[in-house]
Amino acid sequence: MPELNIDGKTSLYAITGKYTGFSPIPGLFNTIVSFMGYNSVMMPFDTNRYDVQMVLDALQILNCKGVYIDTPHRCDLDGLLATQTEEARISGAVNIIRADDRGYNGNNTEVKAFQKAFPKITGETLTGKKIFLIGSGGIARAIAVACAYELCEKVTFINRTQIKSRELCERINKRFGNIAFAADLNEPETIHNFYNADIIINATSAGMFPDIDNHSLPENYNFLPHHLVLDTVYNPPQTRLMRLAGTKCHRVLN
Questions:
Q1: For 54-80, how does the pLDDT look when each residue is reduced to its tens digit (9 = 90+)?
Q2: Cβ(239)–Cβ(215) under 8 Å?
Q3: pTM of this structure
Q4: 160-165: long-range contacts at Cβ-Cβ below 8 A with a sequence spacing of 24 or more?
Q5: Phi-psi bin for 182: left (phi > 0), alpha (psi -120 to 50), beta?
Q6: What are 99-126's pLDDT values in tens digits?
Q7: Residue 229: how many CA atoms within 13 Å on its side-chain side?
């Protein structure tokens, strides 16, 4: 296996967030660039002591070429950006920053990633589908915008903080028409939308290590055989939500 060769010409990239110790991204990045022969390295910089703006300013001084934005900062960068792509602007979330003379330039690569990955993983299309999406943070925003780009029929959001869901719906509906709805778990219409959904997606951290016994739905929400269930939690590979869904549904994926 090739090794990283760090010298005076090595380009620095970074990942920053509060939980960088759990992230596989630096290892993946460094393995890939070593195989490809790029003179680059990614280092983790957590934000537990300093806020994200201070960390980004320090990285710019170090001539850092780009930064992967990890939890919980993806939705907190609007005021810091000189430019942003349409995906980042509509979703209100940024996961990649490139620094140049203009300042910080934001992108959300997870939108296109979900568009490309979904049909490969599931063998299906998002077009015309009814989506029930749990969460309204960075990952949820990217998935919602990806579904909208792929012409889904409807996206129903549930989230602990409804103001975030409503704000996200406004962003999506302004660009794609009236397809996104913020819902309360206890409303009859929300339960109706859950049972009639084609695809149910958990885009929260519920069930992630070490809190592996948690999941994001009330006990009175029961999966049906026609549901396709996706969980964005990557550790553990099979969450409690997936196990519950697996007793009723034919298709459960992470």
A1: 999 999 999 999 999 998 899 989 788
A2: yes
A3: 0.89
A4: 161/136, 164/136, 164/137, 165/136
A5: beta
A6: 888 889 999 999 999 999 999 999 999 9
A7: 27
CA-nearest of 68, 65, 99 to 81 is 99
CB 232 within 8 A of CB 202: yes
Q: How far apart are CA 136 and CA 143, in angstroms?
A: 10
CB 13 within 8 A of CB 56: no
Which of 218-224's residues contact partners 24+ apart within 8 Å by CB, and which partners? 218/185, 221/185, 221/191, 221/194, 222/248, 223/247, 223/248, 223/249, 224/195, 224/248, 224/249
> What letter represents residue 41's amino acid?
V
Contact in structure between 97 and 77 (CB atoms under 8 Å): yes
User: Residue 219, Cβ neighbours under 10 Å: how many?
Assistant: 7
Tokens of 251: 């298709």
Residues in the chain: 254
CA 82 to CA 205: how far, in whole Å?
30
DSSP conformation letters of 102-171: TEEEEE-HHHHHHHHHHHHHHS---TT-EEEEE--SHHHHHHHHHHHHTT-SEEEEE-SSHHHHHHHHHH
